[in-house]
Amino acid sequence: MRRFTTVLLLLSCLSSAACNVNSLFGLGGGGKPTVTVVVAPKAPSVIVAGTQQFAATVTGSSNTAVAWSVGGSACTTQDCGSISATGLYSAPKSIPNPALLAVTATANANPLDFGAAAVTIIAAPAAATAPAMLRGIYTFLLSGGDAEGPLSIGGTFEADGSGQLLNGELRLCHGESRCSDQPFAGTTAFTDANHGTFSADILPDSHFTFSLSPNNILKVDLAGSQNLHASGILRANPSSSDN
Length: 243
Fold this sequence. Notes:
Blueprint: H1 2-14, E1 36-40, E2 45-47, E3 51-53, E4 55-59, E5 66-71, E6 82-83, E7 88-90, E8 100-107, E9 114-122, E10 135-146, E11 149-160, E12 164-174, E13 178-190, E14 195-200, E15 206-212, E16 217-224, E17 229-236
Parallel strand pairs: 2-9
Antiparallel strand pairs: 1-4, 3-7, 5-8, 6-7, 8-9, 10-11, 10-17, 11-12, 12-13, 13-14, 14-15, 15-16, 16-17
């Protein structure tokens, strides 16, 4: 019963712009500093039977390991999906009622400290509306952080229309002065009409997900090892008109 109440409070808190999870339980406020856990992405929508990679950034302790869990008011009687030990969430095959769930990362250093994301399960569009693979030249720019601190990731690649990424160039910067440029290749695929994934061979433990907007701009989320997380856009170059 306590766990169920905690999940309800989490979902209520996550809907507020001024949410402070520790304040739900009277933590902090002049006592011993607590561990902080931040989960990314914060409020994704996941299609039924789809997946979403989450990352947790832990500060305040040298022990950065977390335990992942899924909960919500629907989960006592309905399937809410599952999450792996590495933060890969697998959505259920049907939309629970209510469709809003909480993915929680609890710090191994202190089980009273945790972070959470609000996940909305959505229906998959009809397969007939699914687009072709990406085709043409794309640029991307993301900002976020990892275990070393804030970072930005930008670059370009060419998509051949059959799921392969070619001639990729990626720049990763920690701050403004510590940058590295690397070529890369990879793969891409749509999981439904408006969502997809792509990978880069130089980031083998990372997972990119994107959602397509009507104006041909794709919102991108990146999650990976070493607390890597970033968000940004993927845009087709104007000269690339085959998409």
